[in-house]
Amino acid sequence: MLRSTILGLGSYVPDRVVTNDEIRFLNDQHVKCAEPQTETNDEWIKKRTGIEARRYVPNDGKIGSSDLGLYASQRALEDAGVTAKEIDCIIFATLSPDIHFPGNAVFLQSKLGIDGEDGCACFDIRQQCSGFIYGMQMADSFIKTGVYKRVLVVGGELHSHSLDYTTRGRDVMVLFGDGAGAVVMGPKETDSPTDGVLYTHCGADGSGAMDLHLKVFEIAKLPYVYYDAKNRDQNSIMYPQMDGKKVFLNAVRAMVASVGRALRETQLTWKDIDWFVPHQANLRINEAVVQYAEIPPEKALNTIQYYGNTTAATVPLTIDHWRKAGKVKKGDLVLSTVFGAGFTWGSAIFRV
Ligand code: COA
After folding, report:
1. 0.85 cut: is pTM over it?
2. How far is the CA of 244 from the centre of ligand 1 (A)?
3. How far apart are CA 221 and CA 237, in angstroms?
């Protein structure tokens, strides 16, 4: 039987660690001021989200999310023993692309040095925090049908430049960090029912679309970008808007259902699966999913404490973090479940 499999994995986070104690002193240029800029504190953030710190890119205007994706991809390629030239498809999941169009995948292709007249196919996908599992499902389908043989799936986000560093934006601002993760996927002939990528499923509920969104522009309007530097309220379209409680409840409900469906459809139990890798939006969401889906708590891997929510990057970043720490081993079976803006969700079961 032809399956897709993960050949290699890599991740990257910038060096700058921004703790909960520091974040309230940051202005919109990420400069630490003498006076607090946002009414928040370490205790509130830790208690409500589990987050202790997040990473930010240097604020020199030189790094975009395609660069974060590049660093993660280089590590994934090295891990896979695959050269960039062997990649015949790139799928880049991000909600923070370098520019509006073209998408990040073509920038990444060029930065990998594989552009030109024989350049590979490049897709950008926009499924926010579910982007990585949506990307894996696409790659899996492409590989199993023989369309592509070496697919690079990347999740990369630069959030720190589009957050509101005032009390108005504190509910969203404290949650997000910068980072990237990538996998190289390829075909594998196998008779084992639990080899490679053995399950993917994705879903969405568009009725929740505006419960977590970032406008920046509205193409239905003319002019389609409103910007008045003197009017901070109007400029709220530059920042993500979220109904936190609604997102929280929908995340728990959809992730529990998605885990149940994955186990039902594969006939696997937690005896077969080594690790549960949920999207990292809020530690309380993940603890609730573990409880309601009856997942052995010791099998759940989290990294939100260290990196905050890195949206499309959280799944490969979390696996790589715990692999470097010696917990996740090559060949371990992972069930990963995600939820994001849209609303979107999905699960995948695969060997790392
Ligand atoms: N620091 C301090 N206080 C804050 C704060 C912050 N960063 N953000 C919000 N607050 C305040 C609120 O203004 C509110 O104050 P009030 O009671 O005076 O009105 C109070 O804390 C409680 O806010 P509430 O929204 O009820 O808190 P919550 O328990 O729902 O937690 C979130 C807020 C955002 C942490 C939580 O709703 C959440 O995580 N939602 C899901 C977000 C998510 O996962 N997004 C990504 C999805 S992929």
Report:
1. yes
2. 6
3. 13
